[in-house]
Each structure stands twice: as structure tokens, then as C-alpha cells.
Amino acid sequence: MATCSWLRSCGAPRYPLVRPRRRLLPRPGCWASGRAPLRTYAPGPGGLPAALLRKDSFVGGRWLPAATAFPVLDPASGAELGCVADCGATEARGAVDTAYKAFCSWRGVSAKERSSLLRKWYDLMIQNKDDLAKIITAESGKPLKEAQGEILYSAFFLEWFSEEARRVYGDVICTPTKEKRALVLKQPVGVAAVITPWNFPSAMITRKVGAALAAGCTVVVKPAEDTPFSALALAELANQAGIPPGVYNVIPCSQRKAKDVGEALCTHPLVSKISFTGSTATGKILLHHAANSVKRVSMELGGHAPFIVFDSANVDQAVAGAMASKFRNSGQTCVCSNRFLVQRSIHDSFVKKFAEAIKTNLHVGNGFEERTTQGPLINEKAVEKVEKHVSDALSKGATVVTGGKRHQLGKNFFEPTLLSNVTQNMLCSHEETFGPLAPVIKFDTEEEAVAMANAADVGLAGYFYSQDPAQIWRVAEQLEVGMVGVNEGLISSVECPFGGMKQSGLGREGSKYGIDEYLELKYVCFGGL
Questions:
Q1: What region holds the Aldehyde dehydrogenase domain (predicted)?
Q2: pLDDT tens, 473-521?
Q3: For the chain, what is the domain count?
Q4: Does one domain contain both 281 and 379?
Q5: Does any domain span residue 238?
Q6: Same domain, yes or no, for 286 and 309?
Q7: How far apart are the first and last CA of the chain?
Q8: 334 an active-site residue?
Q9: In this structure, what CATH number is given to the domain that contains residue 95?
Q10: Are residues 383 and 411 in the same domain?
Q11: Which of the 8 DSSP states describes residue 498?
Q12: CA 44 → CA 149, 366, 479, distances in Å?
């Protein structure tokens, strides 16, 4: 979920930290007692940007409180960052009604004007990129350099779709009779319900919303309960950019209400489109709800990406690609390599160099510390899953090369871990870990590697390293995934289609194809000529 260009830039330079601005006071009743600073780190980058740190829902161009609020926690320390409006099914249905009223006029706005408004939103994101990045780091734990990269990636989707808005073309079809003309129109589908994850709390919104607004749709966004501040900050900037009331709406909610809100959005008769990024299990539930009214859906679901290293590969390049693919965002991306399949003749060399790279280049710490490359996992449950996968592998004969346990910094931190002697019967071989765990499996032949790679019921991304041109073509075509990195560990870009095969989802996001997910084709037959 990250472009090659911005990730490379994030890994090299040292960005200056933004000095603290004024701190916010907690909403009454949110904290158990007294006033508290938003962060407690020393020397620490201080408070978050008050102008962008909104706490209410955003519906119809207005900031609306809810009857209750839920706390948002800093995954690095467990401290409360603030409390956010806890919307329920009633608020969700109201937001859809508002979005539909706005759609009735937004669909008639010219493509040029929609393009201009998206461009203004992009410009405001760039102007506020440092503050937006601080919000991401605070609520997700992502290292600040990576958060700065995500904001650029996120803004680029608004820029891209501001340009694509003016390229929605219809068609003229020759008919068999001279008395008729046939036209094909492309029209916006209507209100889109957008449900986004916590691991890319800004980019996953703009990748969907940019396309939707460019097409002439309006949206209701339900952000992840762990990271709502980023979605609300985008709402503030959308409002400043002049996006009309009701076109972009945000309804945050707690985990307790997420099921009801998701169902309300997927079953509302005025919602024409569902776009979801998250787990395959949750995606199946939403698909079931959407099926009753036959809604259009886009699903970017779980992955279990193989990373294959053939004996013809440049091992040093493969290690560099493995580091980039596996450990950004502490292994918490859907396109992270989850299984490392290495040909027997180069296995030991690869494992040795991979271990050295992990020990030398990865630094666990708070995301605001300049040296940090690995922040915390999002919560305790995420850490427990990594522990479970490591424990299961060790009980079945795997060996810890480096890492293997929780980090001394705190409960949500886990050491970057490399396992060898991994086999196909271990959990980490057939379940997505979503954490900093790299299991290495030996293979002997190309056919064996491809079979192992394709054994999963998901197929989002896959990677392999080889210097054999014939093998490159064979394997690229045989891998059952939606995206393939050949001698490259970073594959995502706004210009290229993002999506998977099998149970990794439906549809594509980004690229020139992304806007089609929000358009209907209408055939018009003009007779009597």
C-alpha cells in the first residue's frame, strides 16, 4: 500500500521533527481525572495540531457530536489521545440520507469543477503534510518518516483523480441500421459507503474517496476505531477546500458499534456502492449484507504474500527487497511478504544476510523518535497473534535466527523476527501474520515454489527474485495474485491498479481503472433518425 518512490525517500533522509504546538484539553468526561498532555515522551514532539484534531462526526458540512464518545489510544504508550464521537446505526443512516441529498446536486457539477475542488483538497494536504503525519504517528504508532510518506501517497490520490475526473469518456457505437444511433454514457453510481482500516488511515480513504468524488458520487466514510483522527482531519481540509456539504461525510464509531454501523451502511437502500479494505472475514460479512440489495462492491481483503528467491537471484538485492516488503509499518500491511520461499542452494546465504540486515537496519522505538524504523503493533491482540505464530512454529521445529519475543519497550512492541526451518504445517505458512515475522521455507524446484505460493485461498500480492528471463515470464504469469513484484519489494503506485485474486477481494483501486468502480454504463438507443 505504498509507492516505491515515497517509501524510498522515507528510508533515506532524516526529516526534522515538528516542534510542539499548543496542547489540547480533554473533552469533559473522556479522561478519568484531570488534565493530561496528549503525549508523555521526552524529549518528544509534543502536542498534536489542534486545528486538525477534530472529535465530532462530520455530516452535511457540520461537526456533530454524538451522545457518547470513545477513547483513541496511543499504541506506543496506551495513553488516551482524546475522545471521538461514537456514532451508531441511527447516525449512519442519517449520514447516508444527507449524502444522497448532496448527490442529487453533486452529480450535476461539471467534471472540471469537481477536478478543481479535488485539486484544492490535494493542495491543502500538502500544505499541512507535517501535521497530518503527526496525527498518523500518534494514533497508529507508525514511524514519523513512514507517516510523512503516507501523507504524500494519500495526497497523490487526490491529485491523480482530480485529473481523471475530466477523462470519463462515453462511447458511440455503430448500429446495423442507418435510422439508429447507439451511445454509451458513464454516470456516477450514487452514494458510496467507504469502510477503511487503521494501518493506512489516510491513504485508504483518499484512494477510495478521490475516485468516488471524481466520478460524481458522494461518500460516507466509517474509519477504523483505532485511527479516526486522520479521517476527521481530512474532513476539515475537505471543508476548507470547498467540497460541498454532504459530499464527504465521516461517522467514527467504537468497536462495540462497528458491526451495527457496517450493517446499516450495507443495507441502506440509498447506498449504491460499498468499498471496504480490511480482513477477508469481515469482507464476507459485508458482502452478505450488500447482496440482499445487490449493491456494487469493491473489496480489498487479506493477503498472504509469498516472497520467492530463486537460485539465479542476486541475493543482496533479494535481501534489500525482503527488508522493504516485510518490515514497513512493522509488518502491518496487506501486501507485506508473509512467507519467504528460498531455493535450497542459496538458502543459508540468504538467511545469514537477511538476519544481518535486520539486526543492523531495524530499530524498534516510539514513532516520533528519529531513529525508529519499527513502531508498536496496533494493539495487544495484534501482538498476541505474532506470539501465537512464533510459538506454534517453534513447537513444530522452527528455529529463531533473530528476535522471537516481545520487545522490552512495552506490551505492543515486538522484536523483528526471522525464523528458519519453517515447514508448510505451521500457522505462519498458511495464515497472514500481520506483524514483524519473517518465516523462511526451503524449496528445491520452481514448480514446488509456485505450488506453495498458490496454495493459499487469497492472492493479493506476490514477489520473486530471479535473473532468468524465461523463468521471470513463467512465474509472473503463474502466480495467482493480483500484483507481482519481480526483483522489486515495493510495488504500489497511484498510477497502477491495486487489488487481488481469489479471496483477496473484488475490483481495483487507483490507476485509470479505479474510477470505473464508481461509474455505471448506460446504453442509449436513439432511433427515428
A1: 66-524
A2: 999 999 999 999 999 999 999 999 999 999 999 999 999 999 999 999 9
A3: 2
A4: no
A5: yes
A6: no
A7: 51
A8: yes
A9: 3.40.605.10
A10: yes
A11: B
A12: 20, 9, 45
- Look up residue 515 and give its three cell numbers: 474510477
Q: What is the mean pLDDT of residues 290-309?
A: 96
User: What is the per-residue pLDDT for 1?
Assistant: 41
Among the listed residues 94, 101, 165, 161, the one whose alpha carbon sits nearest the alpha carbon of residue 125: 161
Rounded to whole angstroms, the Cα distance separating 337 from 272 reads 34
pLDDT of residue 446: 98
253 tagged catalytic: no
Mean pLDDT of the 163-177 span: 96
Among candidate residues 150, 164, 300, 509, the one labeled active-site is 300
Residue 111 lies in a domain: yes
What pLDDT is attached to residue 410? 85
Q: Which residue has the cell 506476490?
A: 462
Three-state secondary structure string covering 295-318: CEEEEECCCCEEEEECCCCCHHHH
- Same domain membership, residue 253 and residue 240: yes
What is the domain extent for residue 246? 51-301+508-522
Query: Could you say which DSSP state residue 378 is in?
Result: S
Region of 78 on the Ramachandran plot (φ > 0 left; ψ -120 to 50 alpha; else beta): left
Whose cell is 514477489? That residue is: 463
pLDDT in tens, 70-95: 999 999 999 999 999 999 999 999 99
Residues 238 and 95 in one domain: yes
In this structure, the answer to whether residues 257 and 310 fall within a common structural domain is no
